[in-house]
């Protein structure tokens, strides 16, 4: 058992007969009344995100998890195949379980949280940034640069990202996988 003081980003807890992962939290100490913790929880089974508030000192049931590095091998329909980089065991996960799966290319190494009680994969953590090549982008229009103008571009994994007008086909760009947004152009 853990308490609200143990809440941190990435903690997996049992709550209302499901397993949730803490994706955001804020300890609040108002001037009047008792302290509390405001959280944003994501179900590892359904992907649904809920907001919840725990009063200070509230007991929560945490779930012991192990993290393992897995390499993304290939997609087969909506199933994604991964291989453990230590013992070479393979697992298959549904695309909905993986946040940012549209930015994953073959060979990408991700971290998978595994429940130690039943050895079931709980969630997949993508690297914070990935570098992908632009395969399609409309040419930028001169004179449109008074503000931070963007245009849609398609990257090698098939995902669409808004990029600045100076990005062209063949450029490698860094993408923030959490926001699904362009970060910077990579110079070779």
TrEMBL record:
Q: Which organism is it from?
A: Tenacibaculum skagerrakense
* Signal peptide, first to last residue: none
Supply the InterPro entries for this chain: Elong-fact-P_C, NA-bd_OB-fold, Rib_uL2_dom2, Transl_elong_fac_P/YeiP, Transl_elong_KOW-like, Transl_elong_P/YeiP_cen, Transl_elong_P/YeiP_CS, Transl_elongation_fac_P
Its pathway? Answer: Protein biosynthesis; polypeptide chain elongation
Give the protein's function: Involved in peptide bond synthesis. Stimulates efficient translation and peptide-bond synthesis on native or reconstituted 70S ribosomes in vitro. Probably functions indirectly by altering the affinity of the ribosome for aminoacyl-tRNA, thus increasing their reactivity as acceptors for peptidyl transferase.
Q: What is this protein called?
A: Elongation factor P
Q: What are the Translation elongation factor P/YeiP central domain coordinates in residue numbering?
A: 67-122
Per UniProt, residues of the Elongation factor P C-terminal domain are: 130-185
């Amino acid at each position: 058992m853990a308490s609200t003081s143990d809440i941190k980003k990435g903690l997996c807890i049992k709550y209302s007969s499901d397993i949730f992962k803490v994706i955001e939290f804020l300890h609040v100490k108002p001037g009047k009344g008792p302290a509390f913790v405001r959280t944003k929880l994501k179900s590892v089974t359904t992907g649904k995100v809920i907001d919840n508030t725990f009063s200070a000192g509230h007991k929560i049931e945490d779930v012991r998890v192990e993290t393992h590095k897995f390499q993304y091998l290939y997609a087969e329909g909506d199933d994604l195949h991964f291989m453990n980089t230590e013992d070479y065991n393979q697992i298959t996960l549904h695309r909905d379980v993986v946040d940012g799966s549209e930015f994953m290319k073959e060979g990408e190494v991700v971290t998978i949280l595994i429940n130690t009680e039943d050895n079931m994969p709980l969630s997949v953590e993508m690297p914070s940034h990935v570098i992908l090549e632009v395969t399609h982008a409309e040419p930028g229009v001169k004179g449109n640069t008074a503000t931070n103008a963007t245009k849609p571009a398609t990257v090698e994994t098939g995902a669409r990202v808004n990029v600045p007008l100076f990005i062209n086909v063949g450029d490698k760009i860094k993408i923030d996988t959490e926001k699904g947004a362009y970060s910077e152009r990579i110079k070779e």
